[in-house]
Amino acid sequence: EAHRSFDRGTLRVDHAPVDGDPRWGLSLVLLPPAHLADSLAAAAAEIGSLYDGTHHIYNAADLHLTVTSLEPYRDKVAQTTIEHYVDAVERARDLLDVNVRLVGLGGSPSGVFVQGFDNETLVPIRRQTREAAADLHDRVAPPMAFVRDTAHISISVHREAVPEPRAAEYVQRHRRSDFGDMAEATVALARYRASDHSMSVEVIHTVR
Q1: Residue 106: how many CB atoms within 10 A of its CB?
Q2: pLDDT tier, 130 (very low <50, low <70, confident <90, very high otherwise)
Q3: 33/94 Cα distance (integer angstroms)
Q4: pTM for the whole thing?
Q5: Ramachandran region of residue 183, left (φ > 0), alpha (ψ -120 to 50) or beta?
């Protein structure tokens, strides 16, 4: 499906979020160490040079692996919400010994990403943060706060539905490229800021 969507231009277009959107809300993320972020940003720049349309290309500062999306997008996040999740993450420090290996590019109608393999080491903290989301909402976690079973770092997000055959070929050539591991990653509570053709990461709190 992904390769076909690139060839035909039937890409899934992402738009700048508005309050209540399920994407781009307050999240717990892993931020790659500098050397890894640089190599991922180089791959993102290469993809950017091959795209025919205008899409969001991640720079090194905004690369992240989502552990759990906690809340819908909000232009202004309540301080009480931030304090709730900071406390929850700090109390879950013993669950943050995670191990994610980044191997191979992947593509979807929504964008291009680096595949992550965590050997289920992310599962405990994902379950715990879903519980924290439920605690904030009368024991009913928001829909986006589900326990994910995948791990990846996006390097592009599609903003136009146009054919992108050169990008598809690049992804195919790098399906087994080894980018390294996230052993030195920083665990962070983060939110996102929208700008023209871009979403930037705003770090609210770091754990390590």
Answers
A1: 17
A2: very high
A3: 20
A4: 0.95
A5: alpha
